[in-house]
Design goal:
Elements lengths: L1 H4 L7 H7 L3 H31 L5 H15 L11 H16 L5 H8 L3 H13 L5 H8 L11
Helix pairs in contact: 2-3, 3-4, 3-5, 3-7
């Protein structure tokens, strides 16, 4: 809203981030871009699923959302032998570059791999999409539990 109130369109976040010199502001802009691309990607996947199955049932969409949210949390599963942080970062970079014409830097990658960054992104995506996280997931994030996995239960 701050951007809009100053007449800056959100599609220019990448350009604004390039110009910012304060580390906190730069990190906040990075997270906002990532949250927005994840939100847009989830919405597109939901539209694609709706077109594919043409069913009013909630279950296929719930499963899609759960899998997507676990994709966001993927980097917090460092103990998992299938964990590949570079694939996670490449996925984010592809989305951010497509939407904001911005190439992630080494500092951006470090910010995204930092402790609690996936949880922070997850909370914002859920908030923007109107998704309610269960109390057990919220508690695990508060306690900074590693390896949080969301399920349909």
């Amino acid at each position: 809203r701050e951007f809009h109130s100053h007449g800056v369109n959100m599609r220019h976040l990448g350009r604004v981030k390039e110009l910012v010199t304060q580390p906190k502001a730069s990190t906040d802009l990075l997270f906002e871009m990532v949250v927005r691309v994840f939100k847009n990607e989830l919405r597109q996947q939901l539209r694609d699923k709706m077109e594919e199955i043409k069913v009013a049932s909630e279950e296929p969409y719930r499963l899609l959302v759960v899998n997507f949210l676990n994709t966001i949390l993927q980097h917090s599963l460092a103990d998992d032998p299938t964990y590949r942080p570079f694939e996670w970062l490449a996925y984010i970079e592809m989305l951010v570059r497509r939407k904001f014409k911005y190439k992630l830097t080494e500092a951006d990658n470090a910010d995204l791999l930092a402790a609690q960054s996936a949880e922070r992104i997850l909370e914002r995506v859920a908030e923007k999409m109107g998704i309610t996280l269960s109390s057990s997931i919220q508690q695990a994030m508060l306690l900074k539990n590693q390896g949080i996995v969301i399920s349909t239960q």
